[in-house]
Amino acid sequence: MAHKLEVEDGLYGIIESPNISRIRFGEYELNTWYGSAVYFAKDKRTLGFKDINPSKRKSEMNREEIWLEKLFICDSCFKYTDDEKDYEAHLLACDHLNKQLGKIMYRDEKYVIRKVRGSKHKMFTQNLCLFTKLFLDNKSVFFTVDYFEFYIVYGTENNKPMGFFSKEILSWDRNNLACILVFPPYQRMHLGTLLISFSYELSKSQNLVSGPEKPLSPFGLVGYLKYWSSIITRELVFGKLSDAKVVTLEEVSKVTGIRHDDIVMTLKHMNVLVNNDGELFVLKKILQDWAKRNKVSLNPLLKKDCLLI
Known about the structure:
Elements: E1 4-7, E2 10-15, E3 20-25, E4 28-31, E5 35-36, E6 68-73, E7 80-81, H1 84-93, E8 103-107, E9 111-117, H2 122-132, E10 148-155, E11 161-168, E12 175-177, E13 179-182, H3 191-205, E14 211-212, H4 218-238, H5 249-256, H6 260-270, E15 273-276, E16 279-282, H7 284-293
Parallel strand pairs: 3-6, 12-14
Antiparallel strand pairs: 1-2, 2-5, 3-4, 6-7, 8-9, 9-10, 10-11, 11-13, 15-16
Helix pairs in contact: 3-4, 4-6, 4-7
């Protein structure tokens, strides 16, 4: 759910262009992708909400569109400040440096996924959402974290949060995911696929056919089409449906946990549908060729024996 709400002194939430020039996130320095008004008080010069020293003023703006040259964000708890000394002092005393929140839901040799309730750890999840707004142009909550669960992936070696997805505790549309982000330093490591796969395993454990909240962001849609394509092809060519001569849409949905409309959209994207007298079919030979061309793996990234749901 995007937050683009007009308030008395301007725009709340997302701003079209970045207003924070760079962030320091642990050992990384990053450019922001989007602007966010939520970090700031209404005067646009004072960091708001949970700044270590809320009365502190930032330096004069060098350019009108930049409100802050550098924001320092803890890569363990997402607390933030514009003062480097405060930041360095916090890193030495951060409560989450070697202690992660939440319940372990998945663990393998590389990654751990933990469930964190927004209502139980409000400051942590709100600061996580503020961080997210710098890299997503929609689907980021802030005030309503009480109604969400956050599934955060940690590296077993660095004990750092690397990405997450949020999920409504009660979703009338049975969505299994509201917002997903792999943090910029950890992208291109297949963590998005890991989190998406876990969201579907979570739904399957509840006997639900589910999917993400719509509309998807452009990056989100790319990630989901890649995941859906691999899962559908794997089941039809190598998996539980591989021996069937005829398979219905309902059967594909039941085995994969993917919604009907998402399956149809994916097959259209793959360009594997054949029109026969007004009816759409997928021929196994076409899928086999597609699987070979795209190197569909027989082994899913998420290891089933590591699920602790």
